[in-house]
Amino acid sequence: MRWMTWFVMFWLAVIVCAAQIEITIWTHEDPNRTPLEERYIQEFQKMYPNVKITRVTYPSAKIREVVLTAFAARKGPDIFNMEIQDAYPYIVNERVAPVNLSVLGLKTFDELKSLYVEGALDAVTYQGKIYGLPLELTNWCIFINKKYFREVGLDPEKDYPKTWEEMVQISEKLVIREGQIIKRRGFDFRYPYYLTFLLPMVEQLGGALFSDDGKTAIVNDEAWLKVLRFMKDWGPNGRNLGSPTYTAARKEFNKDNNTVAMCLSGLYQIDRIKAENPNFYNSKEWMVVPFPVFKDAVKDVRCNYYGHYYMVNAESSKEKQEWAWRFINYILSHPEDYLLNVGLIQPKRSLIESDTFKNYPYAKVFLQDMERAHIVPLHPKGPQFEQLIKEAVESVMLTTTTPEEALRILKKKANELLKEE
Amino acid sequence: MGQAHLFPKVIDLRTLERKKAIWGFIFTMPAIIFFAIFSFYPMANAFWTSFFRKELLSLKAPRFVGLNNYLYLLRSESFWNSIKATAIFAFGTFVPMVLFSLSFAALILTRKRFQKFLQMAYYSPAVLSSVVAAAIWLLIFDPRGLSNQFLNFLFNTKGIDYRWLSNENMLRLATIIVYFWKYVGYFTIIFVAGMASIPKSIHEAATIDGANRWQDFWHITLPLIRPTTLLVSVMSMIQCLRTFSTQYLFVQGGAPIKPIDVITLSIYNTAIRDRQIGRASAMSVILFLIIMSFSYLQIRISKTENITY
Lengths: 421, 309
Prior knowledge:
CATH superfamily of the largest domain in chain A: Periplasmic binding protein-like II
Largest sheet of chain B: 2 strands, antiparallel
Radius of gyration of chain A: 24 Å
CATH class of the largest domain in chain A: Alpha Beta
Strand content of chain B: under 5%
Number of strands of chain B: 2
Strand order of the largest sheet of chain A: 2-1-3-14-6
Shape of chain B: flat
Low-confidence stretches of chain A: none
Mean pLDDT of chain A: 93
Structural class of chain B: mainly alpha
Strand order of the largest sheet of chain B: 1-2
Largest interface: A-B, 39 and 34 residues
Number of domains of chain A: 2
Order of helices and strands of chain B: HEEHHHHHHHHHHHH
Structural class of chain A: alpha+beta
CATH superfamily of the largest domain in chain B: MetI-like
CATH topology of the largest domain in chain B: MetI-like fold
Number of helices of chain B: 13
CATH architecture of the largest domain in chain B: Orthogonal Bundle
Distance between the termini of chain B: 43 Å
CATH topology of the largest domain in chain A: D-Maltodextrin-Binding Protein, domain 2
Shape of chain A: globular
Oligomer: heterodimer
Radius of gyration of chain B: 25 Å
Helix content of chain A: 40-55%
């Protein structure tokens, strides 16, 4: 009899385990987001005991290669997110599944679009279907350490840089060097995200990455040349105000250790300051101002924004896909939590119109900039174009290459890449 | 009677040899299977893939393009830059690595005390993962790091930035230093083992014949360790041609890619960033052929009879 009981229990356990659905989610590291999403996983698993969610994190720089190799081997996770310019080729190559509307309780994609602010889902709309739901839309503004401004006789509230020319002048005042070695940078760029911050600088001067018909790359030589000259002047071969070889400015900024006075980052930086250096956060010695424009700009374009969208593997079973969308819908139904705990903006109308958003520090600065910006260019070869721009910028900043020569090479390579099958 | 007695013995020996061969085959089977699955299959697969145009994310069937990937590479400016970067790195590292590891081995063996300690000290960087080593050196080469401080102290200068990560030549030198530091100890140990295997009596005979230390090293040690020198030179050349993590991490750390865009890094970027796995496979085949030819050349040049004592 006892033997029989054990036998029945064993097979019951086998059946229960077999019925359990396991969903794997791969996402980038974000120390503030992890506890929040782990909590949602617990809640979701409690609601649906037959579902087990495994959340795996990878460093931001690593996740694109991990996901790519997994998908190449047809062993991709059920859910993942990456910066949209990296995720876009997954949509074009039909590797991700369209949003399951019935799980969300919706009937049409237009109904889904109406829940979000204008254009928020454009990046994941392909051939009439929507392939992802936004975890965040992020643009970058300038973070300022007010203390260092006052130290050099500047009033941060009035004297903050509005143009790139002013950025150079103010950085010259703020920089501390020991010979050729920079001890404190006034400001430094966010290398190597050139499609995000450098392309808008080119666009401000009338340039573009692609022509309107999409047949030519690197449009308007004068605009590109001016930006390349600006970067050369910024780097160690010029005024020596910063360089890609120094530690990332946004990381140093949080430490408030007299190594950088300004950096370029998103709204999430506020929560990172709070987590990493509460004293600095509470001191209120920091502020956020808009992305500068060139003095002779022909277009008022601000820093490009990018998005992270949760997507579902098209090769997961239909059942898993359905549960994956159900889970994504559940975690994304807390946009206020994401804003308050992680500093991420989920572009839902309900959030943007809420008092929580309106009262969030500097949310207005970011929103106003976003209204004058556009999403990073989405192209199946986007990462290759970014690499070519990186090579051009860093060759003028760090080697003896002239801006004219760098532009010639960039134009040649970019147009070859564009024409390649 | 005598012959009848001999035959079973011969048969016994043959059976024994056959048994030994079978067992030998059984024991080596796991290694052969392991090699076939994890080395031979990927190599053959890369060779096959190099004739196709295949987008890593696409579910469409790869398109046969014959030798187009190879022709594209031979016309590509970036690929030739990679060949140049690899050649500079390999020769810049290989020559000092062999010379210094030989010298360090000789130095260790002349010490009467601390031999084991010195061996351990030289070998320890080889235990570190390449990524960790590159990350440590990245901090050292930071403009505010130890390398600038040391050189400023050495040359009694103040605030000179030697631009380890931004000047083309300094950047190449920086990657060579990291690799040299990491592997010189490993090859030193191989030389120590080679030198220690020379019987003492040969050195004693040379000393009795009036040879000084230098003559002993030049005319006794060096010729007798030729197989070890060949091993070290082939191994270190292969290592240098396959370098990846140092260059990868330096580029991630903000260094310009062009001067250190070695073939392996270019393969990685072609496959992972550009998602062109066919082209990346063609590059791997070319790298394989380069390594094979260098190894063959080295073996031919240093061809020597077996040394027995």
